[in-house]
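ASSEMBLY PREDICTION REQUEST
Request ID: AP-0331
Submitted by: J.K., bench scientist
Number of chains: two
Total residues: 285
Priority: normal
Notes: Please return the full assembly, not individual chains.
Input sequences:
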Amino acid sequence: MITQISFLIMGVLAVFLSVLMITRKWPVTAAMILIIVMMLLAGMYGLLGAHFSAVSQIIVYAGAIMVVFVFVIMLLNLPPAELRYGRLTISELVLISLGFIMALFLGTKVGQGYLIANLSSNTLVNARPPYYPDAMNENVKNVSALMFTDYLWAFELISFLILVAIIGAIVIAKKAKVSDAKSS
Amino acid sequence: MPSLPELGIYFSLLLFIIGLFGVMLRKNLIFMMLSVEIMLNAANLAFISASSMTHTMDGQVIMFFVMAVAACEAGVGLALIISLYRAKSSVEIDDLRILRG
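STATUS: Completed
Returned structure:
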């Protein structure tokens, strides 16, 4: 019961803070609010039993990605953004409501039954190590075992993607003309 | 009271819709990228909830991959924002109409 109440409080706070985030004027304020949202989400992952994901959420998202965001915002010395909102078209509203209905379906008992019937009846899934929400060591062990067996190919591809992204970021962000760099 | 993973799915739905509105309503590139981060986090929460619901670990592994892709997206996107700001000295998308047809 106490886990459910704390989960509810964290979720409501996360939703409220993200509404606050998209309506701010200063980009730095929005980035700081988003860091708090990331930490609340890490707490929610921990309550759901995914301890490895909770820790990597804090380290990677709140500690690495958001620092890059804040660094770039401060580097550019951005002025406060005017709150000029665009307008939604009818097709965008239809798409949003379709997504809402689909996600609501996944949240109900029917969707849960669909998920469990399609994922758990698979013999490959049942052959895997079981899920232990209470044991932290088991969580890390099971995730890493799955990552380095079934998802090994995807893992290697992700490392290659990060290499390409680093090179791409350097190529994009460096000075466009070599003559400017020489003359300065 | 709904179970914990079910609540997680509902919260991920709300967060995703907030992020979607942030991308579509704001005209500032920084705010649009921050809203995309909210959407990615909502997807992660849905993955973790489904993983907890079905008692499998696949959702957590996929959440790790999503996180790596988000890191790449942030790096390349912020580099693009820096070079656009250098060219136009603005990050408002109304001022960035170089590619209009």
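REVIEWER COMMENTS: Residues 1-83 of chain A form a domain with the Four Helix Bundle (Hemerythrin (Met), subunit A) fold (CATH 1.20.120.1200).
SIGN-OFF: pending second reviewer
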